[in-house]
Amino acid sequence: MVYFLRSQVLKGMKPLNPKAPFDFLKLLKESFPTGASSPDASASIVDPTTSPSNADNPSLSTTTASARGQIVPGEGRGDVPASEVREEAIRLQPEALARSTLPPPESDVPEGLSTPALSLPINPRKRRRKFACKRAQRRKLEKKALNETGASQDTLSQVLSHGAAVEVDLDASELEAARGAHTGKPGKKENLGSQAERERQYSLEDLLAQGFEHIEWDGRTPIPIVDRSGRIIAVLAGQPGSDYEQDLLEAFKLFSEAGEEAGLGPTAAGGRHKRGSFPAFNRGVTMGMGSPTPVALNPGLMSGILDRLVGAKAVRRMAAYQNAAFSLWAPRVHDEYKNAQNALRGRFPHLPDNFPGISDFAAAAFNLGGKVWTFKHRDFLNWPFGWCAITALGAFDPRRTAQLILWELKLVLNFPHGATVLIPSGVITHSNTPVATGDTRMSFTQYTAGAIFRWVENGCKTEKELQAADPQCWAEMQAGKDSAYIRRIHNFSTIEELMSRIQ
Q1: What does the alpha-carbon distance between residue 458 and residue 343 come to, in Å, rounded to a whole number?
Q2: Domain containing 351 — which CATH number?
Q3: Does residue 431 belong to any structural domain of this protein?
Q4: Cα angle vertex 397, ends 394, 398, to 5°?
Q5: Which domain of life is it from (predicted)?
Q6: How far apart, in whole angstroms, are the C-alpha atoms of residue 218 and residue 445?
Q7: Is residue 102 part of a domain?
Q8: Would you call 109 helix, strand, or coil by DSSP?
Q9: Res. 271 pLDDT band, cuts 50 70 90
Q10: 66-79: per-residue pLDDT in tens?
């Protein structure tokens, strides 16, 4: 498989090839003892010219020998060195050992290695049944490990096979984050403009005149957006196949019915807000603005309606795909979200969990009313070097309605119904072109507040509580704040890294 970066295609350069195949068996072996959800990627890269051997993995060698029905010296004697067990076997059963096809003692099991206890049944039928059970158990463990370590090789291969990426003239280190890199910055007036400029209805022609590039995305093909250092800083995640688009038409219908039930019009009852003039309601958990602990978001009179929406099959599938796409394109960043969500649920199990078991975001936004397009803004209270997942819903023409504008990246994108994008909304200013006359558009978003990550890193404490409980730990946390953003941006994956996981 090859992967074409856009600049390489334009310049006639060679396509990018994966550096090495992904050693999945090695990853499984390493994941069981540590219990880690995603081992270090560098540990899973192997030399493509070297084939794995049983000598490098004694446990696999022993299991394989047993599965063939051969006598394995040392089985059932895990506390005795292999050499002593062999001598005893030779002394007690010289003829049986002489007839076996085992390699010399020193090449089968390394000196001093303890082998697993295993008793061989005498009856061949029982022996075959026993090993069949063990193989089934091993496959079950492998499947479990696969679910814990991210996307499968087949999934990665299918997604990356589209072979297109958009490169931008920006490095992630240039994005503005607050000290400690737990939140972004609201942005200065010279960057965001006046209130009138932020709320202006920009057309595609206006943006092209300002030097923006128009990406005519079909909403299905996954396209990563990479910075100058090759980091995947955003993704046009597209949508899976099958009947997903139809399910999302059902989600759009549910959103429309929810708005009608609540008596919502195209504009928010309370007037314009930071993101636009459409009705928007949030459900889940947040933190910040003086709160010492994570708290439940309060959607007011919409609580019952949102409770029904998060339980609907179509909405749950949409949330699950957003989470799955996140884990595929940025596994290390996604692990941070998963760890934060687990800590949050462990400490405050009574707080609402929008999509238990299928999404690791703490909160979701339901943007209703049928005329959803956003003003120029940053969600700076979100985690700056994480991602916000956005899915468009509606009956509209993406060539003229609610095209997504990424200001720092100088990109304007067609954003069709059912498509999902993943962007660092806390540090990239974003907005939409307006909804055209006759079109209807809504959207669904998942995110996690940056203050939750800070609370988790402090041992589920505020900074004041950490300072009182452990002054030394607090001092170390303060000392590392100035360089925290460097650690964060290195969590983003590269195309080479993802491709190296494909054999």
Answers
A1: 11
A2: 3.60.130.30
A3: yes
A4: 90
A5: Eukaryota
A6: 20
A7: no
A8: coil
A9: low
A10: 333 343 333 344 44
